[in-house]
Amino acid sequence: MKRRHFIRLGTIAITGLALGACTSRITTSHVQQPLIYSAFDDDEGHHHFGLLNLQTQQLRSVKMAFRGHDVLQHPTRPNRAILFGRRPETRCCEVDFQTLETREINISAHRHFYGHGCFSADCLHLFTTENDFNRARGVIGIRDTITFQHLGEFPSYGIGPHDIQLMPDGKTLVIANGGIRTHPDFGRRKLNLNSMCPSLVYIDSESGKKLGQYTLPDPQLSIRHLLITPSGDVGVALQYQGKRLPASLVAWQKQGQALKLLDTPATVIRALNGYMADLAFAPTSNILLATSPRGNQIMVWDTNNERYLKNIPVTEPSGVFFLEQENSFVISNSAGKIMALDAETLQLTKTFYQNSAVKWDNHMQFYS
C-alpha cells in the first residue's frame, strides 16, 4: 500500500505494499514516465499541488488556497490526484493534471480533515481521517470515489486519527490515532497534552468493527504516520508532545505481535526535536527509513533484528519512497531536492531534481 541509485529513469519498477485491485501504487510493471505527486510551498509561502516528471524534469502545479499534506492518485481516473487538507482544514481537492482543473471535496458540518486517506480494495470508496470536534472523537469518513458523495463514517476508536492505510489482506484498515484533541476554533493548538491517548487501531473496512488496538508505554508519543510492508508488518512515525527525552520516535509491529519502540541512541533522539515525518521500507533488505525534517536527519533501522543502523544528515528531509528495481530510496526535502539513497550502502548517490523555489512538503507519492 504504502511506498516505494535509480539510474534508468525510463524503466523503473516500484514495489507495492498491499493487495487488492485498487492501488496504482501496487504495480511491478515498468514505468515509462516516473511521476511524483507532492504538495509544496514556493518562496513567497504560497501553497501548491505539483506533479513532477523525473524523466523530463517538468513540474506541473496548481496553486492551492490551503496547505496540503498527503496525496493519492485517483485509482480509475488517469491524470487525476487528490490532495488532502492539513489539519484543521475542511477541504480536500482533486486535480486533473492534464487540464489543471480542480474539484473540492468538502467535509460534513462539525468535522475537519487530518491530512490522509486511502481507497478500498475494490476502488469504490475513499476513506478519510477526520475530527468530529464537537464530540472530541475521531471518525473515518466514507465517500464515493467518483462523486465524492459522503456515504457514512466509522469511528476511529480514538482521538485525532491522522494516517490510514489498507492492510495487505485488502480488507483491514489500520489507523494512526494521534491522541491529540483539537478544535478549529483554536487553530492547531493541542488541547489535551496532559491526557493524551494515542493508539494504533485495526478495523474491518466493510463493517467498521474494531479488530485490534495497541498503545505505547508513553502516552505523549503521538502515533502519526504509517508504513505497511508486504507481509503486514507496520512501521510508525511518532511525534513527541512531552518535555522529557522520549525513548524513541519510531515504532514497529510485526504482524500479530506487540507494538514496540525501535531502539535509537539518546544523542540521536535529542537532535530530532521530537518529530518524525515519513517512512519507507526496502523488502529486499528489510531496511526501514524515516525522515525528520525538524532534526535534519534520515534515520535507518534493520527490522530483521529491530536494530538501529545510522543517521544521515540531510536538510529538512520530507517525503520518501522505495524503488525496488534500483534498490534505492528516493527522498525529497525543503530545499527543492529529490535524492537517491542506496538501500545497500546507505549512501546518498545522486540528486535527480533540484529547484530552490520548491519547498517539498512532508509526503510524496510515486506513480506510473
Write up what this structure looks like.
The protein is mainly beta and 368 residues long. The chain has a domain at 35-269: YVTN repeat-like/Quinoprotein amine dehydrogenase (Methylamine Dehydrogenase, Chain H). It contains one helix and 28 strands. The protein has one helix at residues 266-271, and strands at residues 35-41, 47-53, 58-64, 68-73, 80-85, 91-96, 101-106, 111-119, 125-132, 137-144, 150-155, 161-166, 172-177, 199-204, 210-214, 221-228, 234-240, 250-253, 260-261, 279-282, 287-292, 297-302, 307-313, 317-323, 328-333, 337-342, 348-354, 359-367. The strands form seven sheets. The protein has a four-stranded antiparallel sheet, with no helix packed on it. A four-stranded antiparallel sheet has the order 4-5-6-7, with no helix packed on it. Strands 8-9-10-11 form a four-stranded antiparallel sheet, with no helix packed on it. Strand 5 (80-85) and strand 6 form a beta hairpin. The longest helix has 6 residues, at 266-271. The relative contact order is 0.15. The model is unreliable at 1-21 and 23-31 (pLDDT under 50).
Briefly note the CATH topology name of the domain at 35-269: Methylamine Dehydrogenase, Chain H
Radius of gyration: 19 Å
The overall average pLDDT, rounded, is 89
Helix content: under 10%
Q: Supply the CATH architecture of the domain at 35-269.
A: 7 Propeller
> What's the N-to-C terminus distance?
15 Å
Q: Proportion of β residues?
A: over 45%
In terms of per-residue confidence, which ranges show pLDDT below 50 for 5 or more consecutive residues? 1-21, 23-31
CATH class of the domain at 35-269: Mainly Beta
- Describe the strand arrangement of the main beta sheet, using strand numbers: 3-2-1-28
CATH homologous superfamily of the domain at 35-269?
A: YVTN repeat-like/Quinoprotein amine dehydrogenase
Largest sheet: 4 strands, antiparallel
Q: Identify the quaternary structure here.
A: single chain
Strand tally, please? Answer: 28
